[in-house]
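Let's do one together. I've listed all components of the complex below, 1093 residues spread over three lines.
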Amino acid sequence: MTDLTELGVAAIRDGVAKGDFTAREVAEAFNANVAAASALNAFIVTTPEKALEAAGAVDADRAAGKALGSMAGVPIGMKDLFATQGVQTTAASHILGGFVPPYESTVSSNLWAAGAGMLGKLNLDQFAMGSSNETSYFGNVISPWRSRDSNAELAPGGSSGGSSTAVSARLAPAATGTDTGGSIRQPAAFTGITGVKPTYGRCSRWGVVAFASSLDQAGPMARDIRDCAIMLGAMAGFDPKDSTSLDMPVPDWEAALNADLKGKKVGIPREYRMDGMDAEIEASWEQGKAWLRDAGAEIVDISLPHTKYALPAYYIIAPAEASSNLARYDGVRYGLRDLPEGAGLQDMYAATRAAGFGDEVKRRVLIGTYVLSAGFYDAYYTQAQKVRTLIARDFAEAFEQCDVILAPTTPSAAFPLGDKSDDPLSMYLNDVFAVPASLAGLPALSVPAGLTQSGLPLGLQIIGKAFDEQGVMNAGLAIEQRANFSAKPDRWWA
Amino acid sequence: MSVDKQTVAKIASLARIRMDDDELERMVPELNNILAWVEQLGEVDCSGVEPMTAVIPNTLRLRADVVDADPLTGGGIRDKVLANAPAPEHGFFGVPKVIE
Amino acid sequence: MSDYRIQGETGEWEVVIGLEVHAQVTSHSKLFSGASTTFGAEPNAQVSLIDAAMPGMLPVPNAECIRQAVRTGMAIEAQINKFSRFDRKNYFYADLPQGYQISQLYHPIVGEGSLVIEADEKAGIPQPKTIGIERIHVEQDAGKLMHDQHPTMSYVDLNRCGVALMEIVSMPHMTSPAEAGAYVRKLRSILRYVGSCDGNMEEGSMRADVNVSVRKVGAAELGTRTETKNVNSVRFVMAVIEQEARRQVDLIEEGGTVVQETRLYDPDKNETRSMRSKEDAHDYRYFPDPDLLPLELDDAFLEECRASLPELPDAKRARYTGELGLTDYNAAQLTAEVETFARFETLLAATASQLDKSGADVATQVANWTLSVAPGVLKSLGDEAQMEFNTAAANAAILKLVDAGTVSGGQAKEIYEIVLRTGREPDEIAETEGLKQQSDTGAIEAEIDKVLEANPDKVAEYRGGKDKLFGFFVGQTMKAMQGKANPQVINELLKAKLG
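Okay, and this is what the predicted structure of the assembly comes out as:
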């Protein structure tokens, strides 16, 4: 019998539907892999019983001849930023320690309704703030990948580091991610998997612990484009509970997948070619161009003149929103309360938040508080939002000349844990290629492109026009078919 | 613009995060590094540019004035609202006594 | 400029007042959640996950609250902003679960407008005065803290949290407690006409933040102002101004300076005091709420808002004095409260229809009945009056009897009493209870003849020029008729006979 944990979303769905295996067998296989992988620390909470329960329901439905959902029989990992009813939801923070939501996020509800089951809640950077999964209160996630040159533990990327690790280590065929400034794409690139950030508003934010509201977008992380297309189809959809939700139909992305790019133009933004760019990244980018040309596309040079300012604008806007979004964690209604002897209300707030937030969260809350404070608001926040307008305009103009944009996902392959954790700025720079699309709300993905000489995965990024997830995934598929990425990490942890 | 320890202390107080002297000292250079870096935005000529309001063109939808139309956004769920409270008191949230 | 002055040691001072009135928008559900807004529920029973600021919860605005704010803006002839935004006002307090209040700072929904307060000589307002209104914005109310339930804890109730408020910000155009009082009353009246707020100050549906500063009479510069929060009656608004102006004058004259601060009013002690808990909350870090897109109003929406506006107090008053010919006093009384004009207009329509006359023909009679006769009877009956019998039809039927001369004013009151006690028909009561006045000229004439015969000397005096005696003859005749004669008929007959 095949190892069921080598199967992706489409294969599991089809196999369950055909009766090649039961959903329960799939859930058991993944539960076993999850249980054996505690060394990776990908999960904060495991819920094998939930996975079995959902599988049982799918098997019963199939036996009863009922129609099965698009994710029927697929057990997935749920980033612990999504509220799950009755299952602890922490955003990898201490301040939400023990918080058990009495509600289910829209995205996770949609997935359960499509027949998916939950293997557990995945570790992440605290409140999704980080690019290496080193800011979690529940400890670092360890990438399953190792360099050929050393046994140093590597970063799985962040903030969806638990998700990337779980998928690449075959602990789950797919996982949810969220992307605020690269948090789906960068970890996908670091771990040799595919991750899609859809257009802002495609997936409801209702029930997702907020980091930066104008940027946060949920998306799928899986082995390949088809699996992402299926899962995104299940996650997306209009939600009247989210004022920023897009009120438009969800296309059947899977059905329309087409790697033939004849007549399509692929833009190469010249500003992404930075001084001192890693040679392997540059080579991979060149390779990407060749693949897309081979798929029938025309390669055109484009300009995104304000690229350089995207990251600084992001590091004003995201912390500003976060400083306000995180004000609700005050020890009054849920989560941690630190009440020193004789403390008043305001002392309780300060003590609770001091004890409950990690260093990176504190740093960003302080930055955000500062840039919004009296006298600085216009110089920082208003200016950043103006620059954001210019960045969005750059993209709009570029898309008059091309259909999608090809760029590297990250400036390097995965770095060792601890390598950048003492230097916030160098950590932030890891998202330099990912952030512009986030600021413009555009759909973007990362698809595996190959390995470095040290044997570490590299990803290529496709950015598309608003609402054109299809075009993005089609270009991704063209790369996927040519890259033939089949490398996987050695199973050193079990 | 750069911040000194006193400013960081003020921001921390505004953000309600207690910080001891060591932490404040540590934060000063970290914040200054970040602030110095983001200040390159000042180079960008933004004359005539409106700050972004909606990242994807979209306008605000209004909902109908109906009570408890959706159980997920309605009231009448006191038990759920209080379920995670650190100090629930007779249907209230308890907090240290406030003097107004 | 009113002539309200504070006498200080160093001379005369004047006071400058601006009011921020928080009016609860009449709506079934909250501004951003579906929880009910009903007053008086069990603690935290009307709280949604959104109101409790659970992680990942998002606001979706209530169309009715937006509509009511726009209608209110139209009622004060204000500019309606087709583009507005919600901003977050960030501060930490136990009644504010999100850690921010969703409000509108940069782009409010309603811009500049105004209202007119009426002249009131006695209150030192010699002529009508226009008070400018700077803006109206929509925002969330906060929850409630209870401090007296536990020795070391305060209790938080979030039922009010998220209820929609309109903040109506006046310009600093008022210069006396009376003007401020008149402004609040007028604003309340407009809100109640429009139906955008029930104006119930006891339940907290309307509260005012009172901004007060003082300056030497004639000084051009405004003084430093203080803001006294959450004042919940017209009387207290006026008291706060008196107290605060006095305090500021005394403070300045003793060499001190007024600090811009938030204060609280203690009605028991009739004094304001500094509010320590809000001291450090002045850096609110406003920024546009990223969970909410810009609010854009289309023409159809605005048109519906305008079309649904009722006749407003000033227009109604003008119509009452003009078209209906009522006195200024009656018009003012009738239009002050929604309930009063509603009662008046219903009865006016019923009476005009029963009498087959125009509204103008019966308006004065109906106004008197509505303002003085009916309230007098109702008051004297107290609990004995059964209000379900107090129908417009019954009232109109009594007015019809009066109009026809069938019953006297006194008899009308008696009939009304019986109606209120029993629900019987006024016509039937007049008939069976003998509550009818005699208009039969023959019977009256006979009595008049007897009176004149019995008083030949007085007849002679009258004819000699002592006009005042006319009343004596009327009285004697009425007495003989046991008070049941139509006085008008008596008058006419007497005049003819004495002629």
